[in-house]
UniProtKB/TrEMBL annotation:
<dbReference type="GO" id="GO:0000166">
    <property type="term" value="F:nucleotide binding"/>
</dbReference>
<dbReference type="InterPro" id="IPR006172">
    <property type="entry name" value="DNA-dir_DNA_pol_B"/>
</dbReference>
<feature type="domain" description="Hint">
    <location>
        <begin position="300"/>
        <end position="419"/>
    </location>
</feature>
<protein>
    <recommendedName>
        <fullName>DNA-directed DNA polymerase</fullName>
        <ecNumber>2.7.7.7</ecNumber>
    </recommendedName>
</protein>
<dbReference type="InterPro" id="IPR017964">
    <property type="entry name" value="DNA-dir_DNA_pol_B_CS"/>
</dbReference>
<comment type="similarity">
    <text>Belongs to the DNA polymerase type-B family.</text>
</comment>
<dbReference type="InterPro" id="IPR050240">
    <property type="entry name" value="DNA_pol_type-B"/>
</dbReference>
<dbReference type="InterPro" id="IPR023211">
    <property type="entry name" value="DNA_pol_palm_dom_sf"/>
</dbReference>
<keyword id="KW-0808">Transferase</keyword>
<keyword id="KW-0548">Nucleotidyltransferase</keyword>
<dbReference type="Pfam" id="PF00136">
    <property type="entry name" value="DNA_pol_B"/>
</dbReference>
<dbReference type="GO" id="GO:0016539">
    <property type="term" value="P:intein-mediated protein splicing"/>
</dbReference>
<dbReference type="InterPro" id="IPR003587">
    <property type="entry name" value="Hint_dom_N"/>
</dbReference>
<dbReference type="GO" id="GO:0003887">
    <property type="term" value="F:DNA-directed DNA polymerase activity"/>
</dbReference>
<dbReference type="InterPro" id="IPR043502">
    <property type="entry name" value="DNA/RNA_pol_sf"/>
</dbReference>
<dbReference type="InterPro" id="IPR036844">
    <property type="entry name" value="Hint_dom_sf"/>
</dbReference>
<dbReference type="InterPro" id="IPR006134">
    <property type="entry name" value="DNA-dir_DNA_pol_B_multi_dom"/>
</dbReference>
Length: 421
């Protein structure tokens, strides 16, 4: 079952097909071996607990697939593996202390041997080549060999050497999947633009009383929505394949299982992440540190305030913007949606051509009926928010800061947390 179900089987067959398309022969499946050593996983930082008013997020697009492509990782491109004696001595000691695999690798952003090479140390390191030979050199000597111009070699943070003079099967497959996903998403965006244009046309017709002309447009919009949904599913499948390939390489039931490649992906990803967040901290504080003052960790779906829109009439919530427009401008309804517009109100937006803020008119503002129960939360100053039970707010309960849904709040004992100016 492990060989026939799930994404591993899909990845296996996709790689085999890619090999056959290049008139090559796929390797035989290796015998499953029990007790495979655990490997380093993704890096997860400990969050800085507390309230933070201004939070930004930086993301690396398709990190693991990008790492595989950048280092040309594929079974046939592996040249050798540096012996991880120093690293595994520490990891195995931690494992014997009953630490989980993730904890054992927690502070590693690359194996010790990799860092010795990067730092050009004089410690001896042994390289085990794929042909069975072994070569010992100082870390500095290895650095000079690997990082010489046109060496045709790259080194992963796991201490694995890959050749780069010819594109690997797996990087080539990922490149094709990535390009196919980009094309599918472009097609979806084009259809969305067509749909938006038709919706605008429909709104204008409805606003001017031409309701008899809406039916053909409605049918066309429905067809566009089907096309968008179809392409969204296709690009999502490509995304799953892109992001699950590295996991298949770490699955012992995969034909192309190789612990060196899987850990090369995760540790190199950790290394990239460390340098990225260190650079972000340096931009804000001047200190190159991945645990610096500017680095936070947050992942939540909570809502702690209404969305505020800046207009030429002052700041407004979405609800107040709708009310202001409906009082002074035309309003109309389509199905369960209510639309309104007032051309004298403009909203503050960004002009990429001038790199400046600018007030501009907007097409419309609308609201729709919600079948879910809504909750109104009012603080002691009379400020209020309305939200469904899908969202949450921050409260203080028994001296602890926690996240709570509206239905979970006790107004008699809980303290609502707000952010003042």
């Amino acid at each position: 079952l492990q060989n026939t179900l799930g994404s591993v089987a899909l990845i296996d067959q996709a790689i085999i097909n890619e090999i056959h398309n290049q008139d090559l022969i796929a390797p035989s499946k290796k015998k499953f071996v029990e007790g495979i050593t655990s490997v380093a996983g993704a890096y997860v930082a400990s969050p800085k607990i507390g309230m933070h008013k201004w939070i930004g997020s930086v993301d690396i697009k398709s990190l693991y697939p990008s790492v595989i492509r950048a280092l040309n990782m594929s079974p046939e491109t592996i040249m050798g593996q540096f012996r991880l004696d120093r690293t595994m001595e520490i990891v195995e000691k931690r494992m014997k202390e009953s630490l989980m695999a993730g904890e054992s690798w927690a502070d590693f952003f690359g194996v010790i041997e990799y860092q010795l090479i990067q730092d050009e140390k004089f410690d001896d390191i042994t390289l085990d080549l794929e042909d069975g030979d072994s070569v010992t050199n100082s870390a500095k000597a290895w650095h000079d060999i690997i990082y010489t111009d046109k060496s045709g070699i790259c080194l992963s943070a796991n201490g694995t050497l890959f050749r780069t003079d010819t594109k690997g099967i797996i990087p080539g497959l990922l490149e094709r999947w990535y390009n196919e996903r980009v094309q599918i998403r472009k097609e979806a965006v084009d259809l969305v633009k067509e749909e938006e244009a038709l919706r605008t046309k429909r709104l204008k017709l409805a606003a001017t009383g031409h309701k008899d002309m809406l039916e053909p447009i409605n049918l066309e919009i429905e067809e566009l929505k089907k096309g968008i949904a179809f392409r969204d599913k296709r690009q999502h499948i490509k995304k799953i394949l892109l992001n699950s390939l590295y996991g298949a390489l770490l699955n012992p039931h995969c034909r192309f299982f190789d612990q060196r490649m899987g850990q090369s992906v995760t540790l190199t990803g950790r290394c990239i992440t460390k340098h990225m967040i260190s650079k972000m901290n340096e931009l804000f504080t001047g200190e190159y540190d991945h645990e610096g003052k500017a680095i936070l960790y947050s992942d939540t779906d909570s809502v702690d305030a209404d969305t505020i829109i800046k207009t030429n009439y002052g700041e407004m919530t979405i609800e107040n913007l709708f009310k202001s427009c409906s009082i002074k401008g035309p309003s109309w309804a389509i199905d369960d949606q209510e639309f309104t517009i007032y051309d004298q109100i403009q909203i503050l937006t960004y002009d990429p051509k001038t790199n400046e803020e600018i007030y501009r008119p907007f097409e419309y503002v609308y609201r729709h009926k919600v079948s879910k129960p809504r909750w109104k939360i009012i603080d002691e100053n009379g400020n209020e928010i309305i939200l469904t039970n899908d969202h949450s707010v921050m409260i203080e309960r028994d001296g602890k800061l926690i996240e709570a849904k509206p239905s979970e709040i006790n107004p008699d004992t809980d303290i609502l947390i707000t952010i003042g100016e």
